[in-house]
Model the fold of this input.
Amino acid sequence: MSDDATLIRARHRDGRTQVKVLMSHPMESGHRKDEGGQTLPAWFIREVEVRCRDRLVLKARWGPSVSRNPYLEFTLRGFEVGDRIVVRWLDNRGRQREDGALIQALT
Amino acid sequence: MRWPPDASRRLLLRQGLAVGALLQGLALSLPRRAQAAAAAGGALTTADWDAAFGADRLATALQALKVEPVESPESVSLRVQDLAENGAAVPVLFGTVWPEARWLLLAVERNPNVLSAAFELQDPALEPHFDLRIKMAETSAVLAIALDGHGHARYARREVTVILGSCVG
Done:
C-alpha cells in the first residue's frame, strides 16, 4: 500500500503555483497496539523534499504525528506551466519514494 | 518644465549614489549576519532536531532547539478548527509573515511526540504558509512556531477540543 505513487497536483495562476500533495504511507505512530496487545513499531515519513528546475524549494522534517497518507499543500512563486515538480520522501526505515508532476494552468 | 535639467540630473545622480550605497550595504551585511549566527551558536544540528522530535513535552522540544518563543499572532498565523470530531486527521493551516523566520514548526502540546513537523524556509520561491493534516491524541493546544535560526522564536497557539482521539506519535 505504501508503495503507491505520491499524487501531486500543481496549478499555476498569476505567477503562483499551488501544490497539493497526497502521499501514501501508514504513518504508524509507535503507540498503537495490534489485536494481540503488541505495540506496532513506529513507521513514518521523516523527510520531505520538493524540487523544481533542479532547485530544492521545500525541505521538511516530520514526526509520527502527521496523519496517515499525509496531505500537504503549499505555494511556490517564480515557476511556469510545464515545469516539473518532484516530491521525494524518506521514512524512518530508510525507504524512499520520488514522484513528479508538471505544473498545469489553472482553468 | 518644473525641474531645471541640471537640477534633475543632480537628483538622479544623488539617487543613484544612494541606491549604490544601499546595495553595497546589503552585500556586506549578508555575510556579517551569517557570521553573527555562527558566533551566537544559533545553528541547529541534526542531534538537536532528533532531540526535539523525540521530546514528549513542549518545554523539552524547545530546549533542544535552544529557543524560548514569545507569543506573536501578528507574526505567526494558525488556523485550525476549535472542535475536531476525529483526531486522526486534523487539517491545520499555518504560516508566518516574520521576515527573519527560517523554520516553521507545528506542535501539539499533549501528543506523545509534541513536534509534528518542521519546514525549512530557505528558498524565496516557497511561500511560508502550509496546510497539513495531523493526528491529535486528545484535546490540546496546537502551536505554530517560527524560528529565526539565531535563537529567537515566535508562536501562535490555538486550543482544539478533540472528541475521538487518535493513538498517535
Summary: The two ends of chain A are 32 Å apart (CA to CA). The longest strand of chain A covers residues 45-52. The mean pLDDT of chain A is 94.
